[in-house]
Amino acid sequence: MGDIKNGFQIVGGRFETGAVEEEIPTVSCFREISEQRRSEFLNKGYNKKRPFFPHRIYYMPRAGSDEFKLAQRMCGESDPNKLWEIVLYATSPAIDEFPEELFFDDDLIWHQQQFGKTGHIAFAYLVTKGDSLYGLNYVSDLVQRQSRRRDYKTRIEKKFRGWHYLLLNSIINFSVENNIKKIYSPTSDLAMEHTDPKRTVQRELFERVYDRAVCKLFRAIREGKWWVIDVAKNKDAIITPEEK
Question: Pairing between strand 31-33 and 20-24?
Answer without folding.
Answer: unpaired
